[in-house]
Amino acid sequence: MVVASPTPIPNEKIQAVELPVIDLSSKRSEAPKLIVKACEEYGFFMVINHGVPQDIIERMEEESFSFFAKPVSEKQRAGPANPFGYGCKNIGFKGDTGEVEYLLLNTNPLSISQRSKTISNDPEKFSSAVSSYIQAVRELACEILELMAEGLWVTDTSVLSRLITDVDSDSLLRLNHYPPLKDCRDRDTSPSSLQPPHHQQQQHHQNCNSNGNSNKIGFGEHCDPQILTLLRSNDVGGLQISIEDGVMTNGRFVSVRHRALTNSCKSRLSMAYFAAPPLHAWITSPPEMATPHRPSLYRPFTWAEYKKAMYSLRLGDNRLELFRARNDEEIAS
């Protein structure tokens, strides 16, 4: 349902793997090394003891499920996504589709307040939940980015985190809902199927049998373009990653191709915070990451330039290749 990428994830090679788990309450000297190793080998990792209050997470999940449980006509009041707002099946502007409905929000407080009026019957409650969640995950993102910089031996460990705390940061929050498969014999269509995880735990977990393995695309193969993505999902699986840009680390860390499948009889909710720089910010490697022996692989460019290229291409297209340094003059700059 989504255009094939240059290096698609082959279904026959899909294997279950255990992602690295980073305990942020462990010794300060250990976390930077573990994060760098996880980024080099997987591009994904799980974080525990992260400090994001559980009540803030639950409030955000409750508001999300409450919105997606509304009739279609009510949800459409918050759309169409252009790019912000409510979207269903259509992803972006180039014809990509998937079995997903979503809310895309700018993290600017004023924008959240205005959008909430078309999203919720209680705009202040929704706006408060979103703002609290964004503040908490932004603080976590800053901590991870600073640990990452430390693990890379970058002298200025706040070189990345400063970009996402800038008042003009282009960070986003995307709430994704993947409905249950229509052909699942044990599909849960009751109102309780659209409840936060702490409510779902009281429900009977259905056995999907072979239907649960259907590879229907919820959100097709892609790489997140931002600096860092923090993903929270409920207890329903569906994320697949491909083990392989990397501008700010000069190719040392690579943004991993991944996709989401609607392979469950339960509704899947994911909340993704995309930590991004301001539009005017220049994207280039810190001095420690580019040396005469390992010159810059990419020419400097602004985040606005990259976003323009991103919106001109399909979901699975390679965008970073457009910015690769082509000659000695570009590398020297």
UniProtKB/TrEMBL annotation:
Entry-linked PROSITE patterns: FE2OG_OXY (PS51471)
Domain called Fe2OG dioxygenase: residue spans: 168-277
Renumbered residue ranges of the record's region Disordered: 183-213
GO-annotated molecular function: metal ion binding; oxidoreductase activity
InterPro entries: DIOX_N, IPNS-like_FE2OG_OXY, IPNS-like_sf, Iron_ascorbate_oxido_reductase, Oxoglu/Fe-dep_dioxygenase_dom
Signal peptide: none
Biased amino acid composition, Low complexity: 190-213
Pfam families referenced in this protein's UniProt entry, alphabetically: 2OG-FeII_Oxy, DIOX_N
Keyword annotations: Iron, Metal-binding, Oxidoreductase
Family assignment from sequence similarity: Belongs to the iron/ascorbate-dependent oxidoreductase family.
Protein name: Fe2OG dioxygenase domain-containing protein
Organism (species): Liquidambar formosana
